[in-house]
Amino acid sequence: MNISVVIVCAGNSTRMGGVNKILMPLGERLVIGVTMQAFEKCESVSEIIIVARENDIPAIREEAKKAGISKLKICTTGGETRQKSVINGIKCISENTELIAIHDGARPLVKPEHIEKTIKDASVFGGATLGVPVKDTIKTVDDGLITDTPPRKFLYITQTPQIFKRNLYFEGIDFALEHDLDFTDDCQLVEAIGGKVCMTTGDYTNIKITTPEDIKIAEILLERGD
User: Is residue 79 helix, strand or coil?
Assistant: First the structure.
């Protein structure tokens, strides 16, 4: 099965004080290098497409070379929103691609075995995403007041990669564009057209580096081999 991975890293890193998180050091590599290596190790993955800010592309290409990434097909520029950035990446996948995986560039600690597990689930259900059960009690709040307490057993923290059969994902994109919808989560594209998405259980180490303390946590997890 031919699988294309679109790694999205075109954000502005506002919560990192403007510092580009994907180009921060993490262990012996940069964050984006560690992320690419996770997919490089997956036998099922055919190609990697990076979506990034234009100014960052030379550094990403250099990091890919240093990290020994052979599956990097192309680096392309992002759009005004995450959805538009993903679409830019999708335009670069191969004609024979059967499954499309979308991953956050700032999730470097995703495990190859969890990627493969998500691929397997997506091939069965049409779509799958990594995720973990929430640990805390969640409240819905309106105007500062609690309105509901959803049963925790039904709640998961959604991670990436999110993986879909090509035709199903394209149908979701067409629906979103036709109805002028802009989603921040790729599963929503498939949910919007009634598609099934499996929640593949991963682990809590697949963190997204968003704030300065996250990079410190990632360094500890990487050093421990978690």
Answer: coil
Instruction: Write phi, then psi, for 84 (nearest 5 degrees).
Output: -65, -35
pTM exceeds 0.90: yes
Burial class (CB in 10 A: 0-12, 13-18, 19+), 55: exposed
Each domain of the chain, given as residue ranges in start order, spans 3-224
Instruction: Give tens-digit pLDDT for 179-211.
Output: 999 998 999 999 999 999 999 999 999 999 998
Residue 63 CB neighbour total at 10 angstroms: 22
- Parallel/antiparallel/unpaired status of strands 45-52 and 72-77: parallel
Structure tokens at 100: 């499309």
In a 13 Å sphere around the CA of 138, the CA atoms on its Cβ side amount to 12
List, as one string, the DSSP characters of 43-75: TTEEEEEEEE-GGGHHHHHHHHHHTT---EEEE
CATH architecture of 3-224: Alpha-Beta Complex (3.90)
- DSSP label of 180: T
Do 61 and 87 form a contact (C-beta atoms < 8 A)?
A: no
Instruction: Put residue 40 in one of left, alpha, beta given phi > 0 → left and psi -120 to 50 → alpha.
Output: alpha
With vertex at residue 190, the alpha carbon angle to CA 184 and CA 191, rounded to the nearest 5 degrees, is 85
